[in-house]
Amino acid sequence: MSDVLAVTDHRRGDLRDVSYEIITAGRQLADDTGGDLHLAVISGPVDDFAEKLNREGVDAIHTVSHGEEFNHDVYTQTITQLYDELAPQYILTPNSVNGLDYAPAVANELGLPVVTDTIGLSVNGETLTATREMYGGKVETTNELEGDAVVTIRGAEWPTADGTGDAVIEAFDAEIDEDAVGSTVNGFEEVGGGDVDISEADVLVSVGRGIEEEDNLELIHDLADALDATVSSSRPIVDNGWLPKNRQVGQSGKVVTPDVYIAIGISGAVQHVAGMKGSDTIVAINTDPNAPIMDIADYAIHDDLFDVVPALTDQFQ
Ligand SMILES: Cc1cc2nc3c(=O)[nH]c(=O)nc-3n(C[C@H](O)[C@H](O)[C@H](O)COP(=O)(O)OP(=O)(O)OC[C@H]3O[C@@H](n4cnc5c(N)ncnc54)[C@H](O)[C@@H]3O)c2cc1C
């Protein structure tokens, strides 16, 4: 019987979805180990967060009120102290910007192995089997770990936990060594804000590296106009400065759930798919029939975008 400690994630006063997903992942693991699921809620309005996170399957919630935002040293110190106190077998963290910041430090501090970006977890005896993707989602690998471990979970892979729980909520008295806290959050600055919120669009015409040159974007805008749709893109288009950051779909961009998502010259890398797989209908236009986007498309057009897009625009006009 071994316990699981899952760490929740928040930003600017809001819990992130992965905080509810990690309850589901943690509960499944705790069922495998026959132990309890503990949640750690660190910084921000912890009492309010704890109330929201008190969902079915959670046995205990430990709150640590220290500052408003994520801080590497505060998280690392708190989690190592919770590990010493609770002796869980597994520490689960989100595979988020924050989680990836402190999880390796916690593992290093505790002398534990760390496995990141997992999409499936199961325990048999003392062996944890963690599933990860490689090569842009073309290959799945299973990793076996013995004994205690730190595990980061990918967002949107486990359903969010619901149902009201009856967890014990208690303040954990973490002893933070303030001298060892080497950074502070001074504020937030939105990058590339703009006129359009792509997460609100019903139809998205999304463009990727297959477009080759900035001037060719005109084809995409023409199709979007004909459909009364909004233009979005994969990351390379934004990295090239061809579209502003607020148009980027994906793990480091926006999560979108339109009725129709038209992916043009986009391969479907896992970081892109993370942002659009909730679309109702996915149309992919790609010259490579083996591109991962073709696997999740409802309609796959295996052809050259420079032929297909003008033809579609003509039709819709
Ligand atoms: C930490 C991290 C975060 C990331 N976050 C994001 C993110 O938020 N969003 C994101 O998109 N990416 C993100 N990425 C990058 C991601 O891994 C991919 O590199 C990126 O999504 C690839 O973009 P793409 O599909 O446009 O380009 P490519 O992978 O180069 O694909 C281009 C596609 O166009 C097709 N093509 C070429 N010519 C034509 C033609 N004439 N007609 C039709 N099809 C054609 C090709 O067959 C290919 O499939 C992230 C990466 C990392 C490491």
UniProtKB/TrEMBL annotation:
GO MF annotations, alphabetized: electron transfer activity; flavin adenine dinucleotide binding
UniProt KW Phosphoprotein keyword: no
Alphabetical keyword list: Flavoprotein, Transport
Database matches in SUPFAM superfamilies: Adenine nucleotide alpha hydrolases-like, DHS-like NAD/FAD-binding domain
Secretion signal, residue range per the UniProt entry: none
Keyword Flavoprotein in record: yes
Family annotation (InterPro entries): DHS-like_NAD/FAD-binding_dom (IPR029035), ETF_a/b_N (IPR014730), ETF_a/FixB (IPR001308), ETF_alpha_N (IPR033947), ETF_asu_C (IPR014731), Rossmann-like_a/b/a_fold (IPR014729)
Gene Ontology process terms (BP): fatty acid beta-oxidation using acyl-CoA dehydrogenase
Residues covered by the Electron transfer flavoprotein alpha/beta-subunit N-terminal domain: 4-184
Pfam families: ETF (PF01012), ETF_alpha (PF00766)
Family designation: Belongs to the ETF alpha-subunit/FixB family.
PANTHER family attached to this UniProt entry: ELECTRON TRANSFER FLAVOPROTEIN ALPHA, ELECTRON TRANSFER FLAVOPROTEIN SUBUNIT ALPHA, MITOCHONDRIAL
Name listed for the protein in its UniProt record: Electron transfer flavoprotein subunit alpha
Species in which this protein is naturally found: Natrialba chahannaoensis JCM 10990
Origin organism lineage: Archaea, Methanobacteriati, Methanobacteriota, Stenosarchaea group, Halobacteria
